[in-house]
Amino acid sequence: xxxxxxxxxxxxxxxxxxxxxxxxxxxxxxxxxxxxxxxxxxxxxxxxxxxxxxxxxxxxxxxxxxxxxxxxxxxxxxxxxxxxxxxxxxxxxxxxxxxxxxxxxxxxxxxxxxxxxxxxxxxxxxxxxxxxxxxxxxxxxxxxxxxxxxxxxxxxxxxxxxxxxxxxxxxxxxxxxxxxxxxxxxxxxxxxx
Length: 193
Hints:
By secondary structure, this protein is of the alpha/beta class.
């Protein structure tokens, strides 16, 4: 199947934090479906929604979580009761979702999320101060398990050049056995956007 057919049939799969698809799975029962250009990606790729917090049984609505400790190895704990530690469950959830994740050619994460944020997630110190130096626990596990997979925070896709770069990298990942010209990929994408 050539690129035009694959894009027309939306046969290339991209994982997406489920709240970004409009599903009300955030801790407060809301969603983030309107903060990124999902229509453009959805026009060319099949979007697969995943929510690790719901996946580990946290429910909706639920107590919010935060990262504490040091940025390279933070713990994901409940904001009001830090004895509720979800780190290990979130870090290993990708194994439960393996059939959904293994066949994707890219992943769009919910930015700043303690489970799904790819970068700039708040990490709290014991004194309550924080710095945006962390990575969500699930996002870190996915990045470690699939280092070649194109990954991006949703907020970064709001710039058209970043959206195009991500889409091109997704196509290249999906069709890595075939030599594809970047300009040809961009033209095919633009024709469908």
